[in-house]
Amino acid sequence: MPPVVRTLRESYPHIAVRAEDLPIAALVAGLREGRLDAALTRPPLVDDLESEVVLREPVAAVLPVGHPLAGRDELRVADLADEPWVLTPSHSWPPWHRKYETDFRRAGFSPRIVERGTSPQGLLALVAAGVGVTRLPCSSRSLRDSGVVFVPLADDEAEVVLVRWAGGAPPHRPSTPFARWSTTSPARPTWPPPAERRPSRRHAPRGARSAGPGRPLGGGSTKLL
C-alpha cells in the first residue's frame, strides 16, 4: 500500500489521497455510489466495473502443521477432496463463492465445510487450530508465521486488479478535493508498473481532472482491495 500511495502522489501531486481497507461488498458499493474513485482488490466478478490486472500470484493450500500432506512440494485441489474445509461465509460476496464452487466442481468434489471465517486471518487461525484446511494466495503467509504450512497449488493463481466504475461517472458522485483508495486483500502488488504501462493523464482515477493552476484535482474516492 505505501508504494501505491507514494507513486500516486508523485504522479498527481495536486490530488490528496485517502486510503481505506474495506470488505469487498462495501468496496463495490463505494465505487457504484461514487464515494470511491478506484480500488485494488481481487476481481469482483461483476459487469458494471472496469478492472485491470496489476498482479498475479500463486495460490496455496493452507494446512495445519503436522498434516500428512504438509511435506509435499505441490498439491492439486483434488488432493484435498477428503479434507474438512474452512471458508469465508457464502454471503460475504456471492460472485466469489460461485467461482469457488466452480473450481471445486472442476476438481471433482464438493468441499465438506466445517467452519466459516470472516477474514484471511480468521481462516488461518482455524487452520492452525486443526479445524480444517483452506486455500489462500501465497501473500497471506505474511499474516501468520506459526501453526500453518503453505503448499503451492498446481495451476492455480490469484489476481489483484485495479477497479473503477465503467462507462462514465457514477451517479451521486460527491464533489470532494481528494481521491480515496481502498484495499481488501493482503497481497502486496509490485508498484509502480513498468514505465511503458504507466497510466496517462486520461487514466487518472476517475473523477480526477485538472482544475487549473493552484487548484486541487477533484475526485471521489479510491478503494484498494
Can you give a write-up of this model?
By secondary structure, the chain is α/β, with parallel strands linked by helices. The chain has 2 domains: 2-55 and 160-203, no CATH class; 56-158, D-Maltodextrin-Binding Protein, domain 2. Helix content is 18%, strand content 28%. It is built from 4 helices and 8 strands. It has a 6-stranded mixed sheet, with helices on both faces. Strands 4-5 form a two-stranded parallel sheet. The longest helix is centred in the middle third of the chain and has 13 residues, at 94-106. It is globular.
What's this, in brief?
This protein is α/β, with parallel strands linked by helices. The chain is built from four helices and eight strands; from the N terminus they run H-E-H-E-E-E-H-E-H-E-E-E.
User: Roughly how many Å apart are the termini?
Assistant: 10 Å
Shape designation:
globular
For this structure, the CATH topology of the largest domain is D-Maltodextrin-Binding Protein, domain 2
* CATH architectural type of the largest domain: 3-Layer(aba) Sandwich
- Helices and strands, in order, run as HEHEEEHEHEEE
What is the total tally of β strands? 8
**What's the number of structural domains?**
2
Whole-number mean pLDDT: 78
User: Which CATH C-level class of the largest domain is it?
Assistant: Alpha Beta
Please identify the structural class as seen in this structure.
alpha/beta
- The number of helical runs is 4
**CA gyration radius, whole angstroms:** 19 Å
Q: How can the largest sheet be summarized?
A: 6 strands, mixed
